[in-house]
Amino acid sequence: MAIARYSSKRTHNEAVFGRLHALPPCKQGPDIARWVVAVADSEAGHDDALPTAKRQRMLRSLRTTSQRLNAATRNMAAASPTRRSRRDRSPPKKDMVVATRRKGRQGQLEEADADVQRSAANAFSEGAPSFPAPASSLRSLSPPKKKTASTKADLAYLNPNIEFLPLRNTEETGISLPASVTELWSRCEKRQLDSLITDPPVPLTDKDHRIIDDTLSDAFEQAEKWRNTTTEPHWISVVVGPILHLLRRIESFKNSAVPNAKIAVLDVTPIEISPAELVPFSKDPALYRDLDKRIDYVVGLDLHRTTLKTLRRTKYCTAAPSINQTASFANETPIFLNIEVKRRHVARDPTVQLAAWIAAEFTKRRYEEWDLGFPVFTIEIDGDNWLLRVAAARAVPRTSATAESPRNREGDAPETEAEEGPTTLPEDEYELFFFGPLALGDTLTLEGSKRLLANLIDITKWGQSEFRTWWGANVQMVLEQRMRR
């Protein structure tokens, strides 16, 4: 006894043709499969419709998985006397022909009977399921694909709400930027309009001048050499990184006598936002996947060791002991400038990654009950061009519907103390706005590079003075008070 299976797509070998030579011609098709069972005369049922001369059964047009499984079950019932005895005997289907082939002597019949059992089991467990399911059924089982938030318009559907507006529209949003921010913006605009204004806003030593001239000349040469051929990581290492690291090498930022006034420039490419609760999320979970949690560089304050001791002894409201949105080597750096790089001809908007990163910082402030109103700066680098934006947030008053959350409508008392890890925050408690952009300069020309550095130094000076003052009064002081409780 043997069971043979073949498809019209396969090459017919002699063994298969030996079993099928008696079959009449059949219409061939890619979805037609034939199952042939040779049954010994002694095992054939007496009520079979055809005589016991050579009988063969053929199943045609098995187009669905359920039909194939049913056909395999019928094969087993026809081949096994035990199974046939347990079922009501019925005449064979109209679309099948049953025939037997004499095996010869008794020894051959016993061997054939063992073959029947093995072949029938294989036919059911291995043969039938191996048929591919129709393409339509496979598509219906696939989960709906989520879209990646890849444009500024997509960010309006996230929590928190994130919008991009010109700087002149700040009053419409109800945000009042500090005077130091608007004055800094005006100085950068003047350098953009007058290309001759490239002098840095801080006093420079002779050593500073030599370092700046050598670094900018080399970065400009590297930009000319690799502009059209290199990858983003290499562009960052030979053009972007050297210009940014100049900020920590300038004497005014390197050896300041004021506590916490030194400048740190960090490559944060391998760092993700942590904890994950800080990452902006889609209001419709089926709409967007998680945002990218990384950017390329940050510029912040290099804190004094006495300040670091205080920060390490205090408790934080998030699971990660950090003063920002990270949990790695940058977690003790107050960040005021955030940079994301994108090479040309890449289908990715750097502002989307910056938006996720900055939103995580403001969400961190909400967890820790720090001031939400003070802004930070971002730079998106698109090839040679450096664009500045200022990010600011506005708290949204809770509505009565928000105050009466579904968890408390049935009389459940709200929890006053959170368990380990961050507490649950109400949705849409603040909105985030990015104002700008403003062109800081570029690496297309040496003069453009000098104007770029002058603006970067001006932003760093603001971070060393205005941002440091705000951070000391609204972050450091809050943490020190929390430690004394």
Automatic annotation (TrEMBL):
Biased composition (Acidic residues): 413-423
Low complexity: compositionally biased ranges: 128-143
Positions of the PD-(D/E)XK nuclease-like domain: 215-468
Pfam families attached to this UniProt entry: PDDEXK_12
Residues making up the signal peptide according to the UniProt record: none
InterPro entries registered for this protein in UniProt: PDDEXK_12
Region (Disordered): 65-150, 399-423
Protein name per UniProt: PD-(D/E)XK nuclease-like domain-containing protein
Higher taxonomy: Eukaryota, Fungi, Dikarya, Ascomycota, Pezizomycotina
